[in-house]
From TrEMBL:
Signal peptide: none
GO biological process, one term: regulation of intracellular pH
Residue ranges of domain Alpha-carbonic anhydrase in the record: 1-95
Single GO molecular function: zinc ion binding
Protein name: Alpha-carbonic anhydrase domain-containing protein
Compositional bias segments (type: Basic residues): 87-96
InterPro entries named in the record: CA_dom, CA_dom_sf, Carbonic_anhydrase_a-class
Family annotation (SUPFAM superfamilies): Carbonic anhydrase
Organism the protein comes from: Anguilla anguilla
PROSITE patterns recorded: ALPHA_CA_2
Family label: Belongs to the alpha-carbonic anhydrase family.
């Protein structure tokens, strides 16, 4: 399992498309990072059909770290911010 920033693991025989929903319709909008410095440098992609995860899967995800092995540990949790006003940004859809 990849736990620390900068680490990696081989996933042989794993096809990540199995994680995607049957419909790949989505919306995109320009936005910002969710943590400081909140740079407006991101294009967000929101799937029309949500990907479901279990509580157990979320618990494992929350054990991941933002930090490298030798740094003070900071878990990858609460890395969101409240919805922000559109401020003239355009939301685009991949579907009609």
């Amino acid at each position: 399992m990849v736990k620390f920033k900068g680490s990696k693991a081989d996933f042989r025989g794993f096809n990540p498309t199995c994680l995607l929903p049957s419909s790949l319709s989505y919306w995109t909008y320009p936005g910002s990072l969710t943590t400081p410095p909140l740079l407006e440098s991101v294009t967000w992609i929101v799937l029309k059909e949500p990907i479901r995860v279990s509580e157990k899967q979320m618990a494992k995800f929350r054990m991941l770290l933002f930090t490298e092995e030798e740094e003070n540990k900071k878990r990858m949790e609460n890395n969101f911010r409240p919805p922000q006003p559109l401020k003239g940004r355009k939301v685009r859809a991949s579907f009609n």
